[in-house]
Amino acid sequence: xxxxxxxxxxxxxxxxxxxxxxxxxxxxxxxxxxxxxxxxxxxxxxxxxxxxxxxxxxxxxxxxxxxxxxxxxxxxxxxxxxxxxxxxxxxxxxxxxxxxxxxxxxxxxxxxxxxxxxxxxxxxxxxxxxxxxxxxxxxxxxxxxxxxxxxxxxxxxxxxxxxxxxxxxxxxxxxxxxxxxxxxxxxxxxxxxxxxxxxxxxxxxxx
Length: 207
Known about the structure:
The protein has about 210 residues and is mainly beta.
């Protein structure tokens, strides 16, 4: 098997899900056989928004021939990673380079995990929601938009409300009685808005 590890491993983080890794090629005489390529082992150490430690799954990408760089796609935003690089010949892999750590920046969050509308009265509705399963960063706020739907399914004027990120419920007052409303709800990080969840509910006709 090859004798030495690739040197001078560098990581360039391109965005919240993509990084580029560079290395110096090993001297050909240390390959001790036919150079097949380089393997990059990389794994997520932890999410920066959740301190949970779970089983670390190592991923491997193979770059054929005398490549000196490779792209690592499909990374998770706002996470810390480690990687190392090994050279490969027909017999197997050489030793790993020292582990190199890197962090991905924040991304936009996934949609809130649920939106539930309860306690209808003549002029109010209560909204409850769950934070996104993948915040992909630090949540800064939620945005709620809603509008009435009339009997011919036309949409009325859209109202927009910003809600602090630490809230998980809201009572909407001063609504019209016996009216169906459509709600659009999403979360934000400093990068931008995530995908929205929609729901409909009706205020009651009379007490």
